Amino acid sequence: MATSDKDWQRARELHPVLVQRYLNGFFTEVDSITQNRGTDLRSPYRDLYKLISERDKLIPELFEGMTHSNMWVRVLSWKRHGLLTKEEERTFTFEIQEALRKVSVDR
After folding, report:
1. What CA–CA distances, in Å, run from 70 to 8, 48, 67?
2. Percent of the residues in the chain that have a pLDDT greater than 70, as a whole number
């Protein structure tokens, strides 16, 4: 699919915002794990390790190496992982908005 200049510019503007949103969500989960750790520290350690491993694997899919040719993949991944707001979705062209409507959110 061809990428319009408008969509490319919008994706580039959203990129740093979504990185921060992603990391804020990560640290919220870290806080939840570490604040409710109880007396057995092995379980929260495993939970934290699992969270870091899972989230670290997603970073390339979500944020690294965005180009004109793979922008669609990034935007659809942002939607799938619940990073885009409805308002942000509406800032893209109709073609991307239609594709985003078909993507289910992983949450």
Report:
1. 10, 31, 5
2. 96
